[in-house]
Amino acid sequence: MQLYLIRHGQSFVNLKEWTGGNQDTGLTELGHQQANALGAWLPGEVDEIDALYASSMQRAQETAAYVSLAYGVHVVTDDRLREIGNNRADHTPWPGDDLPEYGEYWGSERPFSSVTPERDGGESLMHFRIRVGSFIEEMTRKHRDQTVVAVCHGGVIEVTFDHVFNVGPFRRCEVWCKNTGVTRFEYVEHPGRETWRLHYHSRAEHLRNIDSEVEIRKIVHLP
To answer: Which one of 4, 23, 95, 185 counts the least CB within 10 Å of its CB?
Structure first.
C-alpha cells in the first residue's frame, strides 16, 4: 500500500494573530491557493489513487475538495483523522460548534492526560495515537495493494510517525509539516524486514511560486 498523508492548507486557526481559540475554521485565501496548487501538482507525482480520505474538520474537507476534483475520486470522511483534542477519549468527535479548549501543557509533556482538561471525557495524546493507529491499520487491511491519500492535520501526521516507528509515549522530536505538505509511506510485506518505508516527508514544491509571492508582498507591504 502507498499511503500519502497531506496536511490541510492554511486555516484561520493557523494564523499567528488568531485569538478565537479552538474552532473548526475553514481555509484562508492563502490556504485555498495552497490547496489549489496541491491539486494541480499531485497528479504529476501520483498518477492514480484508489481511495481519498479526509478529516471531518472544515479545513481538511476544503483541502480534500481540490484533490477530489483533480482525480475525480469521492472523499470518504473519517473522524479518526481529526486533529488532537477535537475528539473525545472514546474517539467520537466533539460538535464542530462546541470544541473544547486546549490545556496549558503540550500533549507530549503529559501523554496520558487529557489535552482539553476543562472538558470531561477529553482525549490524551495516547488516545489520539490509538485512533490514528486504528485508521492506519485498517488501511493496510482494506487497501493492501492500493494507493491511498488521506487529507488530515499536522498532529495526525506526527503520530503516524510514532505509530510506524514504534515510538514510546514520551516523544523527544517534533515532526513538523508545512500546510499542504505531502508525506509518503509504503506498507511492504517482506518477512524478517521492516514493514514500513518512509519515502519522503512534507514535500511542498507546489508552493514555491505561492511562497515567493507571499515574501514579495511582505517586503513591499502589500495586503
So the answer is: 95
